[in-house]
């Protein structure tokens, strides 16, 4: 499979929603999110939704900017992605690794153009989300399909997709190891809370597998911890980062933690499941706001910090890429 790479016509594309790298970029980033009809389909048509997206972004920018200030004004997400891309390239013996962002730059279209200009014929796509959801992987891959459709057929790369990897044994072990380190830092008994980005319930009702994959991953990590000597007082699952007046997947992480504190459980260990880079959800929502709530209630708070910018994580993804390269042609991004 790496013999194919030596021809120079194979590349990897990392996909992600992206984030605003600085305060000035926040309005544009938010506007792109609210204009995305793959996940937010207002009953007004695409043109009017685009105009409404601009207004919504303008209204929400001050609140989001205030949160970004906890990160120094901008998100480190792209920096993490670039480090991960370099490590993955090294694990894959020099196969080029491109980055495409759904809501910021470098855009997915720009990444496709770069790959086409380099003569890439086989593109292995890695959505940087451990679970499949239409709101994340689905939206990114739909945008990729649109970008590829604009490339003349004679030059269009064949796209193959790495599926959900949250239950990959090597990935589970990587996360579980970070949890065991957490459990050693707080007094027993420890309440383990897995937290994931929430999604609108309509996607779950329509068959989105995200919740099932989150629950399966949490169970596998908890089992791994128990087998290898970690001790936790059971575990809970919560969902965070809700936005907008629709019904969201719950329970909310903050409500789960509040209930545990009310029950007298003072040691709380948080384990993010749907992120492989630190961003607003982890650095602010968990490390600043939720930690403050726990400490104010007299509790002890720790957060698992899996080593995602290391060769260990790069090896996990490289293994998935190599498995895809061993197949012929296109694979579907719904695959697990």
Short description:
The chain is of the alpha/beta class and 336 residues long.
Describe this structure in words.
With 336 residues, the protein is α/β, with parallel strands linked by helices. It has two domains: 2-165 and 311-325, Rossmann fold (3-Layer(aba) Sandwich); 169-303, 3-Layer(aba) Sandwich (Rossmann fold), CATH 3.40.50.1400. Helices cover 47% and strands 14% of the residues. The strands form two sheets. Strands 2-1-3-4 form a four-stranded parallel beta sheet, sandwiched between helices. A four-stranded parallel beta sheet has the order 6-5-7-8, with helices on both faces. Strand 3, helix 6 and strand 4 form a beta-alpha-beta unit. Helix 4 (77-91) crosses helix 12 (311-325). The longest helix has 23 residues, at 46-68. The radius of gyration is 20 Å and the shape is globular. The model is unreliable at 1-5 (pLDDT under 50).
Using brief descriptors, characterize the structure shown.
336 residues, alpha/beta, Rossmann fold, 2 domains, four-stranded parallel beta sheet, globular, disordered N terminus
